[in-house]
Write a structure and sequence with these properties.
With 140 residues, the protein is an alpha+beta fold. The protein is 31% helix and 29% strand. β3 and β4 form a beta hairpin. The protein starts with a helix and ends in a 10-residue tail after the last strand.
Length: 140
């Protein structure tokens, strides 16, 4: 019995990050959790997606970039509700990449995601489309 217990503890230590998590610099970053981060004062994930899409579309309308295309990026909402660590994972026009990163970094504070009552970092992977009439419908 003690050998099984030691084996189990060893496996837990080796695999600290499990399904729905990635490890970045020794810290678990979740990709899917029950209480995902919510944008602004959203009450649920659907409202959060709608508010976030509206925010992105409004920013694109304000800047009116001449270039068109889609920027694919990842970002993390940390345990304090700050959007950070934005990375473009599929190259696009540099001006669009810079705008997309700026939009994410300037988002208002989010409600942080939680796992078992503990606030955690959560990664999102999204496309931002720059079109004549912004029509982003981003699913968070």
């Amino acid at each position: 019995m003690p050998k099984r217990f030691l084996f189990f503890c060893t496996v837990l230590l080796i695999f600290q990050c499990s399904y729905g998590q990635i490890e970045a610099e020794g810290v678990c970053v979740y990709t899917v959790i029950e209480d995902m981060p919510l944008f602004q004062h959203a009450k649920d994930q659907n409202e959060s997606s709608e508010l976030f899409s509206a925010y992105i579309n409004e920013r694109i309308k304000e800047d009116q970039p001449k270039e068109k295309g889609t920027v694919y990026l990842t970002f993390i909402v940390d345990e304090y509700g700050k959007a950070d660590e934005v990375k473009v994972y599929r190259e696009a026009q540099e001006v669009l990449e810079k705008l997309a990163v700026k939009y994410i970094l300037e988002t208002p504070k989010w409600k942080a995601g939680e796992v078992i009552g503990r606030k955690v970092k959560v990664e999102f992977k999204i496309p931002i489309k720059f079109e004549e009439e912004p029509s982003n419908n981003i699913k968070l």
